[in-house]
Amino acid sequence: MSVKQLTGVRAFGIAWFGQVISLIGTSMTAFGLTIWAYEQTQSATALALVAFFYLVPLLVISPVAGALVDRFDRKHMMMASDLASGLTTIAILSLYKLGELQIWHLYLAATVAGTFQSIQWPAFSAAITTLIPKQHYGRANGLVALAEVGPGVLAPLLAGALLGVIGLDGIMMIDVLTFLFAIGSLIFIHIPPPVSTAAGEQGKGSLWQESLFGFRYILGKRPLYGLLGLFILVNFIDSIAITLVAPLILARSGQDEMVFGVVNSIGAVGGVVGGLVMLAWGGPKPRIHGVLLGWALVGLLGTALMGLGTGLLVWGIATFLSAFFTPIINGSDQAIWQAKVEPDIQGRVFSVQRLVYWSTAPLGTLLAGPLADRIMEPAMQSGGALDVMFSPLVGNVPGSGMSLIFIFTGIATTITALLGYAFRSIRQVESLLPDHGQEVAAGKHGLWGF
Hints:
single chain
């Protein structure tokens, strides 16, 4: 008996909902394992290395993953990614139950998860182009942002509450079930293949040639590689602070797991509100304002304010504002790329886009731990090299050095974003590049009714 498959905006909605459920489980597991890892090591470097081993394969494999996304059915690529992530969680769960789980196992699991996540994002993002009308790309990306940040509203609080009831192993079992739900939801949808274009024909060749095509395409579009350059800088700066969120809060709160969970949840609420705003609004016009002004505000009102805080109130406000602007930044940026890049090469181009955007993030992640543990924390203790100058601002207690890192990186992010307006290729990216010509039928029913 065949299963009736839906397409259009209904199919997008089903795929989106499946990912939301899956990400709730993933976020709960990540929260629980973060607490476990910090209790085992008491080291910011150990937590930073988990992020590093996730990012490196995600970046290295991205060009090949993009070529595979353009070659094969994008739905099947998404299902394969979900399955691999679920099996990775099962492996970690088994080691934990046997009492054999060690920190290096998390590095290995992060490597596997990053490898398959390199397929998931370009497949889902490229699927939007063939499922959603072009004028609603911004709104669709608002929903994607909700899928990325929304689960964090419940996941940290749920994980924090459930750790004492069902334990870390119970949380990971929930995660496995959510992966099965995500895979099952994809069975009921059909993602139409993109129409062949001249750019797609030009990019055909061996897997190696197709993997490199995304680079050649972007290098031929100066406004696009201008955007890439901007994101390289801000992502490098921001990755240093992001890596230190957990150790900063845990160090300054006396390792209070509930405070850490509440701050994460507040941030997730900010992301949800920002995603809902993006869904209803569609982003500013021109969309580049959503990118540049959004990053400037994240740096000032998010990262720098986070460093000035010493407790839940300020941390909550900073995390909320930072997360609020993130869907507007990412939704505006991705809508530009979806409108300008031909659909049948989006897997390759979007994979290279992510690769270049995040190419400096592993360096920032690796620098964050040693910078905090070996330089800034000792320098901000009583009698340290920076104590007299900055202790009136951040104090000289554990976590003060990391607070100072947040202030510096936040100011640097704001300055870098505003400098983007000085470059015409970035400032006028939407007028300098024409939209691709493919139009997608809206379908009889829509998610938003317009």
